[in-house]
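Morning F.,

Quick status update on the modeling queue. The single chain you submitted on Monday has been processed. Sequence for confirmation:
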Amino acid sequence: PDVYGKVSRYSKVRIRAQDIDGRFFRVTAEGFLARVFQHEIDHTNGIVFIDRIKDDPDTFFRLREDGHLDKLNYEKDIRDNSILW
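Structure tokens below.
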């Protein structure tokens, strides 16, 4: 709870998918839509954001009420956090 992470994503992706009738098609997405596709594909593969950033102590943040992010101290707030791991 209350832990956010900056996950690196490609800015452009090309995806091969299959429709409900089994026909394959391709989609190219850029910007925010490319991020959304990558995020959702991660979920279909059982990957959550913490899996993407767990080895990078500089990517953990807490969201303040004013909408800004405060960097968390990895050793103090993250490393031994039993809720995350």
